Amino acid sequence: MNTLGRSGVEVGPLAFGGGGIGNLYTAVTDEQAHEAVAAARRRGIRYFDTAPHYGLGLSERRLGEALRQYPRSGTTISTKVGRRLEPADGIGDDLANGFAVPATHRRVWDFTADGIRRTLEASLERLGVDRVDVVYLHDPDDHAEQAFREGYPALEELRAQGVVGAIGAGMNQTALLTRFVEDTDVDVVLCAGRYTLLDQSALTELLPAARRRGTSVVIGGAFNSGLLADPRPGSTYNYAAAPPELLGRALRLKSVAEGHGTTLRAAALAFCAAHPAVASVLVGARSAAEVDDCAEQFHRPPPPSFWRELRETGLLPPEAPVPADRTEEPS
Length: 331
What we know:
- The chain is of the alpha/beta class.
- It has 2 domains: about 10-165, Alpha-Beta Barrel (TIM Barrel), CATH 3.20.20.100; about 170-330, TIM Barrel (Alpha-Beta Barrel).
- The protein contains 11 helices and 16 strands.
- It has helices spanning about 30-40, 60-65, 115-125, 145-160, 175-185, 205-215, 245-260, 265-275, 290-300, 305-310, 325; strands spanning about 1-5, 10, 15, 45-50, 75-80, 85, 95, 100, 105-110, 130-140, 165-170, 190, 215-220, 235, 240, 280-285.
- The longest helix has 17 residues, at about 145-160.
- It is globular and about 55 Å long.
- It starts with a strand and ends with a helix.
- The model has no long low-confidence stretch (mean pLDDT about 95).
- This is Aldo/keto reductase.
- GO terms for molecular function: oxidoreductase activity.
- Pfam families: Aldo_ket_red.
- InterPro entries: AKR, FDH-like, NAD(P)_OxRdtase_dom_sf, NADP_OxRdtase_dom.
């Protein structure tokens, strides 16, 4: 287990992302969602992440229901604030925002102190818990000043009151996350899609800053929304059709992996976990089968020869840490 910053909150190296059980893109049943969470528990996963944004609260409700049968102690739950849910007319669906659910609510961007507290209170009710372990400011890209001026101090106060154990920010970019690391006392940042086999932009400033400051990093989007899980024509990269050059690069990575008796999925997960600033790798799953596959891939890392070939062929920069760097260190 790894501790998030100086918070005392512990997470395992592999975590469960709750977007899928919030009906991301396509619907899953309550039973399938609960089976996915049960599979994660069976595989030793104890850190579960969700957000009000995921299915307009559906992910939080399903996660809370599924975890209710397990001891709260030893389970780490994170959720997010910044999108407050307000009742809507329920006409139509939420597919424009990526979720196959009825449009029962609308999202309101709100990083005010009051909005943070109200959003968290609603999340606790949906989850059926009296506290969560981690709260992230969720995607404050276009609301940065309000997030720093009002949202972050509100989280600091909630942490001091013991309502939450650790606080941070979660985004799909590195610049603003680096600012959170350098200018605040966040315990952790969640960086999605910016530290993968195809995109190492977090390596330039964010990860070094996190190391200097003792801030933990959780990596999401290890598969870049699908391309690194199954590269083929039509695969998605950052939730859109993959550009031809990136598809070609992913196919080359897959070919090298297979040549070393491993899989691209295993390599993608192992790469994210190898950086010393990274406390956990967050993988979204919508079924027990997906959870089982991710766990199996995570625990079968590629051999050192695979990483050597990636560096020798220019598919990976030499400064990016890989698992083989640790195994090959002199004793």
